Amino acid sequence: MTPQLFPLLPLLLLAGLPATRPAPPTCYSRMLALSREITSDFQSLQATEPSEVCVGYLPRLYLDIHNYCVLAKLRDFVASPQCWKVAQVDALKDKVRKLYTIMNSFCRRDLVFLSDDCSALEYPVLVTTVLPDHQS
Predict the structure, then answer these.
(1) What pTM, to 2 d.p., does this model score?
(2) For residues 135 and 59, which has the higher predicted lDDT (pLDDT)?
(3) What distance in Å separates the CA atoms of residue 84 and residue 23, rounded to the nearest whole number?
(4) Contact 68, 113 (CB under 8 A)
(5) Distance CA 55, CA 74 (A)
(6) pLDDT tens, 71-88?
């Protein structure tokens, strides 16, 4: 191989490799991603719209798709009459409707509920680390 071809070798190798396509999202991954997006949007809505009094009256949205109560929580949020003229709330309600439809219709068989603790959906889960108690 001539020294002039050495810098071109990596380019030739990359050009010869077939492009890999990522796997399409699964029903479960779509539900999980959308629930995280909704929770994040709700938190930013609370932070950016404090002037809108109605935002304080909206049902809380800390979603866990593994909690059976999440379906009722989604229905309650969409049905809440507060803020029906605030664009960010309307957009959030559309996402919530979409998640509910995905969970209740398209991905119903993919769901596994691990709990039915409705109060756990009222506040975000705080992750704490407990160090082991070392006794001598």
Answers:
(1) 0.69
(2) 59
(3) 38
(4) yes
(5) 16
(6) 988 998 888 887 777 888
Helices 87-101 + 70-79 axis angle, to 10:
140
Half-sphere exposure of 93 (CA within 13 A, CB side): 19
In terms of Cα–Cα distance, which of 31, 35, 90 is closest to 63? 35
Which residue is associated with the tokens 């479960």? 28
pLDDT digits (tens, 9 = 90+) for 4-61: 555 555 554 555 555 555 666 788 889 999 999 999 998 888 888 666 788 888 888 8
For the record, the structure tokens of 95 come out as: 């996402």
Q: Any residues with CB less than 8 A from the CB of 103 and at least 6 apart, and which?
A: 31, 65, 70, 71, 74, 111
**Dihedral angle computed from the Cα positions of residues 49, 78, 81 and 87, in that order, rounded to the nearest 10 degrees:** 40
73: which residues sit within 8 A by CB, 6+ positions away?
59, 61, 63, 118, 121
With vertex at residue 81, the alpha carbon angle to CA 47 and CA 97, rounded to the nearest 5 degrees, is 75
What is the amino acid identity at position 58? Answer: L
